Amino acid sequence: MRLDVVTIFPEYLEPLNLSLVGKARARGQLDVRVHDLREWTHDRHNTVDDTPYGGGPGMVMKPEPWGEALDAVIASGDGEERPVVVVPTPGGEPFTQEMAVRLAERPWLVFTPARYEGIDRRVVEEYAREYELLEVSIGDYVLAGGEAPVLVMTEAIARLLPGVLGNAESHRDDSFAPGGMAGLLEGPVYTKPPVWRGRSIPEVLLSGHHGRIARWRRDEALRRTARNRPDLIAGRDPAAFDRDDRRILAELGWEVTAEGRFGRAPTAVEE
C-alpha cells in the first residue's frame, strides 16, 4: 500500500517510523511519503492561509498550494492506480473499524491534514469530482490540526495489511472487528505471573478447556460492552446473540422490547 500525507508539519508524522508502521515501511509493505505543503507556495513567506471571505475568526488554508500539491502527488503515481483522498475533519464521517478494513483493501491513500479553520472548500469539491474522496472524523472533538487523525487512521489501517502483524489472527477479535466478537468490545486480557500483588487471573484461563475459555471471553465482552458502550447493544436483533449471550444480557438489565430489539429493562424507580 502507498500512503501520501501533505502537511505543513512533516515532523509531526515522525511516529510513522516507529513500531508496527515503521517495521512495515522497512519491509516494503507500506510506502509512506510525507510532503511539505509549503514546497508548493511561491512567496517569500511560504504563505498557506488567508482570512476567510465573509469574516469570522481564524484563517483558511489557500486553495492554490493545495491544488498544486495534490496534482503533483497524484501525478507521481504509475497512472494505473487512482488514490482515495482522505480529508481529516471533525465534520466528516466517523472513522470506524469497518472503514479501516475497507481502506486497508485500497492500494493508495492520500491524506490532507489541515490546520486553522480548514481547507478552502473548493479544493474538496475539485478532487471529489475526479477521485473517491472521504471526509473522515476520528471523534466528536476538535484538534489543532489533522496530523494526529492521520496517525490514528494509518495505524488502524496498517495493522490490517497482510504480514504486518506477526500473528495473522491477532486482529480477528479486535473490538469493533467485523465477525469475531460481532461488534462487541474486546474483554480483559492477562499474562504471567498468575498472581500479581495478590490479584489472581480468572481460574478458567488456567483450565485448558477451550470451550469454557471462549465462553468466558464472550461473557466478559458482553459485560464490558454493556457497561462502556451500551449503544452497541441497544437496538440489536436478538438473533445476533445465542442463549448464553441473552442470559448474560438479562442479568445486566437488558430485555427484548415489543419491537423485537434489545433495550434496557426499566428499573424499579422507572416503573
From TrEMBL:
GO terms for biological process: tRNA N1-guanine methylation. Keywords: Cytoplasm, Methyltransferase, S-adenosyl-L-methionine, Transferase, tRNA processing. GO terms for cellular component: cytosol. It is found in: Cytoplasm. It holds the Pfam family tRNA_m1G_MT. S-adenosyl-L-methionine binds at residues 138-143. Its main location: cytoplasm. Its EC number is 2.1.1.228. GO terms for molecular function: tRNA (guanine(37)-N1)-methyltransferase activity. Residues 1-233 form the tRNA methyltransferase TRMD/TRM10-type domain. It catalyses: guanosine(37) in tRNA + S-adenosyl-L-methionine = N(1)-methylguanosine(37) in tRNA + S-adenosyl-L-homocysteine + H(+). InterPro entries: Alpha/beta_knot_MTases, tRNA_m1G_MeTrfase_C_sf, tRNA_m1G_MeTrfase_TrmD, tRNA_m1G_MTases_N, tRNA_MeTrfase_TRMD/TRM10. CDD domains: TrmD-like (cd18080). The keyword Cytoplasm applies. The keyword Phosphoprotein does not apply. Coiled coil: none annotated. Specifically methylates guanosine-37 in various tRNAs. Homodimer. This is tRNA (guanine-N(1)-)-methyltransferase. It comes from Streptomyces xinghaiensis.
